[in-house]
Design brief:
Number of strands: 5
Helix content: 10-25%
Number of domains: 1
Radius of gyration: 14 Å
InterPro entries: UPF0473 (IPR009711)
Order of helices and strands: EEEEEH
Strand content: 35-45%
Low-confidence stretches: 1-14
Number of helices: 1
Mean pLDDT: 82
Strand order of the largest sheet: 1-2-3-4-5
Pfam family, one: DUF1292
Protein name: DUF1292 domain-containing protein
Shape: globular
Organism: Paenibacillus elgii
C-alpha cells in the first residue's frame, strides 16, 4: 500500500498489480480499481481506490471490513460516517500538500 496520496503531481509509476479490485458501480458497469492509499478513522480502516483506466478521475473511498480473517471492501452507506471519513481524508491530503 502507498503511504502518500496519488494525484497528478505523483512522480512514480501507478501500476500496482497487487492492489487491483473489480468494482461494479450502481449502473452495473465493472471498473478495474487500484488501491492507492489506506488510512484509519475512528478505529476503522479505509481505502482510496482510483479507476485503473482513468487515474485522473476522482478516487473512491471504501471501508475495509474483516470477516473470518478475510478483509474485504465495503461501501460506506451511512451519511454521517461518509462525511466524517471524507473530512479526515481531506485533512490528510492537506497535511501532505503542506509537506
Amino acid at each position: 500500500m502507498s503511504d502518500h496520496i496519488h494525484d497528478a503531481s505523483c512522480d512514480h509509476d501507478h501500476d500496482h498489480e497487487d492492489d487491483i479490485f473489480i468494482v461494479t458501480d450502481q449502473d452495473g458497469v465493472e471498473h478495474e480499481m487500484v488501491m492507492v492509499y489506506t488510512f484509519e478513522a475512528s478505529d476503522r480502516a479505509y481505502a482510496v481506490l482510483l479507476d485503473r483506466n482513468d487515474m485522473e478521475a476522482d478516487g473512491v473511498i471504501f471501508r475495509i471490513d474483516e470477516e473470518d480473517g478475510e478483509a474485504f471492501l465495503a461501501s460506506i452507506e451511512d451519511e454521517e460516517e461518509w462525511d466524517r471519513v471524507v473530512q479526515i481524508y481531506n485533512e490528510i491530503v492537506e497535511e501532505q500538500e503542506q509537506q
